[in-house]
Amino acid sequence: MHKTYLFDQYTPVALYGKIKALFPTEITMLFESVVNSSEGNFSFITIGAKERLNYKDKTTTYTDVKGTTQILSQDPFSFLKTYYQDIDKALYKEKASELGFSFCRWLYWFYWL
User: What is the phi/psi pair of residue 62, to 5°?
Assistant: First the structure.
């Protein structure tokens, strides 16, 4: 799901701080574009994660969409390679085209503790 807002009252960092305060237990991220185009530049704020991959103390932990957590016997990059091997890439290319930016799915994977 995505929502688009035109909001000029706060800087992206200030708005992100307010959102983070509203959702203190959720994973949140702020991505800011560095390229100015004829359409301007953009900031993306994410709240929550459907899935989660953590790597800490040489241990890889995966939490699926149902909230079930499992410790994996492989490093996170090997897991991601296998995981994305079977994913419907056409669906995400279509979504990226529709939304006008290219990071739709991988966004939540790079949350390292």
Answer: -120, 130
Shared-domain flag, residues 83 and 99: yes
Cα separation, 49 vs 72, whole angstroms:
19
Q: What is the mean pLDDT of residues 8-29?
A: 87
The whole-chain average pLDDT of the chain stands at 79
**Are 39 and 66 found together in one domain?**
no
Distance (Å, whole) CA 70 – CA 103: 26
107, pLDDT greater than 50: no
Helix (H, G, I), strand (E, B) or coil at 34: coil
The total domain count for the chain is: 2
Residue 88 CA to residue 67 CA, distance in Å, equals 22
- Return the closest-CA partner of residue 28 out of 43, 14, 49, 12: 49
Q: Which residue has the higher pLDDT, 11 or 37?
A: 11
